[in-house]
Amino acid sequence: MAKYLLMRVNIYFYLLTKMKHTTMKNKTKMITIAVAAVAILFAGKVKAQTTDVNKFRFGIGVEAGAPTGNAHDISNFELGGTARLQYGASKNLALTLTSGYYNMFGKEIPGQDGLKYKSLGMVPVKAGIKAFFAQNLYFSGEVGAGFETSAFGDFKGDETPGLEKDTKLILSPGLGYASKSWDVGVRYENFSGQSNNYGLVGLRVAYGFGL
């Protein structure tokens, strides 16, 4: 029993130590905001006609990604699915609303005899833009909230005292290719708040259609 309690304490302090290493978080936010601003500026200048003006589209996508920052300490792989509603505001600018579910699969805790972190679940709700700078190619920028469905750093088999589910601010710049039916995009997504910041580099492949 004492050995089990000691193991839990070691895990808890290991996570606290990792969470302190967030000195790059301000730079990450600045880069994210800057890329989103560039996307907005391009939207007013480019002439590529790649969106249907005043029309809605709906797409369903599969996502895979690599966790970064503090999330890399507990997971090596993310898999999820999202639905996206899109509105053509102009010939080269679309507005988007995206939600779904991300799952960051827990990995083994170093030195703990096969004990694994619990997978971190996230429900994102994001508003964004797609600004086309060439035929079928676009910059994207999204902002929103991410709702954790499990406590960050918890491990399988029990709930660690003191760990809570948080709501994160999401900032996400990206680059993609869109045709009449398919949308393939890569992005960096940053989750910040409660002194625990992390992110993911993700790929989304989606099938869409007009409404």
Concise account of the structure shown:
This protein has 2 helices and 8 strands; from the N terminus they run ααββββββββ.
SSE blueprint and pairings:
Elements: H1 2-19, H2 25-43, E1 56-69, E2 75-88, E3 93-106, E4 120-134, E5 137-148, E6 167-178, E7 182-192, E8 198-210
Antiparallel strand pairs: 1-2, 1-8, 2-3, 3-4, 4-5, 5-6, 6-7, 7-8
Low-confidence stretches: 1-25
> Which CATH architecture?
Beta Barrel
Oligomeric state of this protein: single chain
Counting helices, strands and paired strands, the structural category is alpha+beta
Q: Give the helix proportion (percent range).
A: 10-25%
Mean pLDDT: 82
What share of the residues does DSSP label as strand, in percent?
over 45%
Tally of distinct domains: 1
CATH classification, class level: Mainly Beta
If you had to describe this structure to a student in words, what would you say it looks like?
The protein has one domain: Porin. The chain contains two helices and eight strands; from the N terminus they run ααββββββββ. By secondary structure, it is α+β, with helices and mostly antiparallel strands. The protein has helices at residues 2-19, 25-43; strands spanning 56-69, 75-88, 93-106, 120-134, 137-148, 167-178, 182-192, 198-210.
